[in-house]
Specification:
With 145 residues, the chain is mainly alpha-helical. The protein folds into two domains: 36 residues; 72 residues, Arc Repressor Mutant, subunit A, CATH 1.10.10. It contains six helices and two strands.
Length: 145
């Protein structure tokens, strides 16, 4: 019986080594096969659902990804009136976020609208970058609305 314990221990060691070798072989084969696979081609509706992270979907008719669509003159005038009203109501100047919330537009549209208002001398700016505040000029709110 003494010898039986040694045989069982040796057999258990061999089985354990064999299982480890087979497992390593299966893992290597799986990695090699996965490396040789090509990504499936995606078309149609699935292509729209799968896009790189961090990229906004392109607006229809703009031709460039992430660019907001052009506004009609009527839409633009409505947004200008809302923006000027929000800027006039805010004491101490309105930030871009305040204007964006008031007009309900996306960030690029709001930036473009505020830049146009500054160029048209309808509002004045104070501060730089994220600390920029927009202040109405005299009569700007009444002339644009």
């Amino acid at each position: 019986m003494r010898n039986g314990g040694n045989v069982q221990a040796a057999l258990a060691g061999l089985v354990e080594k064999f299982v480890g070798d087979v497992l390593a072989l299966v893992q290597r084969a799986a990695v090699a096969e996965a490396g040789s696979l090509k990504a499936p081609k995606v078309s149609g509706a699935r292509a729209k659902a799968v896009r790189p992270a961090g990229r906004a979907p392109a607006a229809k008719g703009t031709g460039k990804p992430g660019r907001p669509p052009k506004l009609s003159e009527a839409e633009r005038q409505k947004l200008v009136a809302k923006a000027l009203k929000a800027i006039a109501k805010t004491a101490g100047g309105a930030s871009m976020k305040v204007v964006q919330d008031a007009i309900g537009a996306d960030t690029p549209t709001t930036k473009r609208l505020l830049r146009d208002l500054v160029k048209a001398n309808s509002v004045r700016t104070e501060g730089k970058t994220r600390a920029t505040t927009y202040h109405p000029l005299d009569g700007a709110a009444s002339s644009e609305s």
